[in-house]
Amino acid sequence: MNIGILMLIFSTCVQANTFGGLEHEVNFAPRSAELSAKEIRALVDWKMNAEKTFPEADFYVSAKSNDDMGIDDELAQKRLDQIVLFLKQTNRRLSFVDIDHRRGKYETGQMIDFMNAVLVGVQPACTRTANCGAEEGHPVSDTER
């Protein structure tokens, strides 16, 4: 199914993200490179929020491969390609795309989920200029002065 079409179909959904909303895990079923409707909706919502918060940000994508867990390089690349295609269809800049090669078999559900997830994140524009001080709409707090 075309990600662009699905992106237009789904509206907002609350999804837990990493610290500050800078990163988002896109979960895939074991041994699958197909994005579920739930994951597409969550990615769309996260991306829209990230773009509001960091309008000039670059995006990055990182997938994991682990032969011991049935996530070979080909599967990791297919997962990566799904997310990269989505970001390119929405005209987002990519600062980097990579596959993190890991070893070892993990048995716990949380680690299995982690290994089957692709990490998508934003790199705020201020990190390119090394000037992440006060910006319009984001004043420096008293503790940061």
Automatic annotation (TrEMBL):
It comes from the Bacteria. This is Uncharacterized protein. It comes from Herbaspirillum lusitanum.
